[in-house]
Amino acid sequence: MSMDLMITFAIIIIGVFLFVKDYFSIDTTSILIMALFIVAGVLNPEEGFSGFNHPATITLGCIFVVSGGVFHSGILDGLSYKIIKLAKIHYVVALVVFCVITALFSAFINDTAVVALMLPIALTVCRETGISPGRLLMPISFAALFGGTCTLIGTSTNILVSSYAKQYGLEPFGMFEFSQAALCLLVVGFLYIFLISPLLLPKNKKPDALTLEAKEYITELMVAEDCSDINKLISESALTNDYKISVLSILRDGYLLYDLNPETTIKQGDILKVMLPPQTINRLLDIKGYQVEGSQRIKTAEDSSEAYNIYEVIIPVGSPLAEGTLKSMRFNRTYNMAVLAIRQRGDVLLDKLTSIHLKEGDMLLVLGSKAELQNLENQKLVVTLSEYEKKKTNYKKAIPAVLIGVGVVLAASLNITTILISAMIGALLMVLTGILKPKEAYQAVEWKVIFMMAGVLSMGTALEKTGGATLIADFIEKTLGQYDAHITLNLLFLVSFISTNLISSKATAALMTPVVISLAALMEVSERPFLVAVMFACSLTFMTPMSYPTNTMVYAPGNYKFNDFLKVGTPLNIIIWIAASFIIPYFFPF
Question: Does Membrane appear among the keywords (predicted)?
Fold first, then answer.
């Protein structure tokens, strides 16, 4: 074994460890792996950075722009009230409607974007019907995963594997080449979701628990004339230093001050809206100069045109808020809003919020105006969950956007051109026709996913260059050589979906694709069934909330626990594994 090969395996082991431990964000870990390959001399800079101009990365970026154009036009929002009306009939109807529509959209549009659209609609139905979000959101996420496997552009994993195949001199996959097999798995999955999952999903999760619990921490204090904190900065006050109380807003002379910072001065007569543990309220009575007030005066101010209300939001995939802290981002001052509570990985956090590292899928309770909330949404920092407002459909943009999207799909499926070229032309047309402004096109791209894709591609490149892929394939062929190709495919599917539940789908696909191509060559069988197995196994992952971005997104709003995913997702993964072992070879013979 050469030194470069040993270094390659060592870096990959480090990468897998970092993926599992989640010390850094996935894209940061991916770029770190790429840098290690370059610094160690395994890859030269051109090879290391080749992931950024890899067809899979460029195609994915263009697809993001095309999807963004369709979403920006509001054409999908036009269906929202019809969905809500149907879903209100009964829980089973809601389950079927949301899953079918989510799967359909996800086949052609980025699945995380589809789930982000469906979340507030589904929560609206839950609030108005009394359905527990826990009974609806996980199936929506799973439906998005099934829909994404049905077409080449349904998920980035499909694009990555197909581009890898072309890079190895193999025929790339067509737009609908594996749709029949994927639809068979979708039917199997939907039967489980509709018939079995309602028996396993949590039934008594309270949708408003975060709001209710946080409100218990909010009270109002009036600054009396004998208060020792008068004319002191908030950062120097006893309120902050001795009692660790957060000041959210100040009512002063009839005006509500919200743009607060540590340098804001406390004045006599101020009414402070503060956040504190309930047990601290009794201690406040001992503070000279502060009086616990009712909420009427601040409520009157907040009922003005610039009303400050409480909203539930979620940090979506790719949001710049992820992996930062409220303090490091100066959130209150920058966005003129305050965070009252955070639900992270199932835990409700109400203390020391400014020092908590935010993650994708975190649910936040924020206090602010509607205008500031809209500003956060426009910057793709959050998705609002509290309420769903139908956006006006601009048909002058919607019709061309849909036509461009359909054109991208048809051009690739009819072999008029490659998916890379059709997606590139589609993205360009979205800007030239005015459907998206250039700035909006940039915002439509999930750059975190792009960087992650470019980073993980370096692992496959290093395995190929050092002969690691062939070595692993040779080991598998010698170990499993006495078995039938069907059994080998079965085991590869198992390894792939287990790996995806531990690390990311893109990292697993980047590692497995060159291996299975080399393995097929050694076994002298078609590589097609192995590649499809990797595609499906990397996308159809249901066992943990971190296995796929859509699972992460529904984790907090559904008030799930980790075990909920294990209980519902593990049987589904096993069923899909068994079904795929028969379905894939049927449509893709060895």
Answer: yes
Q: Each residue's pLDDT tens digit in the chain (590 positions)? A: 678 888 888 988 888 888 777 677 777 888 898 999 999 888 888 888 888 888 888 888 888 888 888 877 766 666 667 777 777 788 888 899 899 999 998 888 878 878 888 888 888 888 778 788 888 899 999 999 999 999 988 888 888 888 888 877 888 888 899 999 999 999 999 999 999 999 998 876 554 556 655 665 677 778 888 888 888 888 888 877 777 777 877 888 777 776 677 778 888 888 887 876 655 655 665 667 777 655 444 444 444 445 567 788 888 877 888 878 888 888 877 887 778 778 877 677 766 677 788 888 888 888 777 788 888 887 778 888 766 555 566 677 778 888 998 898 888 888 888 888 998 999 999 999 888 888 888 888 888 888 888 888 888 888 888 888 788 878 777 776 667 888 889 888 998 888 887 777 888 888 888 888 888 888 888 999 999 999 999 889 898 887 788 888 888 788 788 888 989 999 999 999 999 999 999 999 98
Residue 346's Cβ-count burial label (10 Å; 0-12, 13-18, 19+) is: middle
If you search the block for the tokens 């590139």, which residue do you land on?
Answer: 424
C-alpha 372/C-alpha 378 separation (Å) is 10
Helix (H) or strand (E) holding 308: strand 308-314
Which of 74, 73, 65 minimizes the C-alpha distance to 110? 65
Question: Whole-angstrom Cα distance, residue 216 to residue 350?
Answer: 10
Is the four-CA dihedral 86, 383, 366, 565 of positive or negative sign? Answer: positive
- Kindly provide the b/e burial profile for residues 520-545, where b requires at least 16 CB atoms within 10 angstroms of the residue's own CB: beebebebbbbbbbbbbbbbbbbbbb
| 100 class by beta-carbon count within 10 Å (0-12 exposed, 13-18 middle, 19+ buried) | middle
Measured over the CA atoms of residue 35, residue 37, residue 42 and residue 44, the dihedral's sign is negative
Whether residue 51 contacts residue 457, with contact meaning beta carbons closer than 8 Å, is answered with yes
Do residues 372 and 58 make contact, with C-beta atoms less than 8 angstroms apart? no
The Cα–Cα gap between 479 and 374 comes to: 57
**Distance of alpha carbon 555 from its chain centroid, rounded?**
10
Helix, strand, or coil (residue 120): helix
C-alpha 216, offset from chain centre: 30
Residue 131: its H or E element: none
Q: Which two tokens stand for residue 471?
A: 């070595």
Amino acid, single-letter form, for residue 375: N
Burial 303-324 (b: 16+ CB within 10 A, else e): eeeeebebbbbbbbbbbebbbe
Report which secondary-structure segment, H or E, holds 241.
helix 238-241
Amino acid at 374: Q
Q: What is the pTM of this model?
A: 0.78
| Nearest to 476, CA basis, from 440, 517, 536 | 517
Radius of gyration from C-alpha coordinates of the chain: 26
Rounded-to-integer distance, Cα 219 and Cα 36, Å: 51
Element (H, E) at 312: strand 308-314
Strand, helix or coil for residue 357: coil
Q: What are phi and psi of 25, to 5 degrees?
A: -65, 160
Burial class (CB in 10 A: 0-12, 13-18, 19+), 293: middle
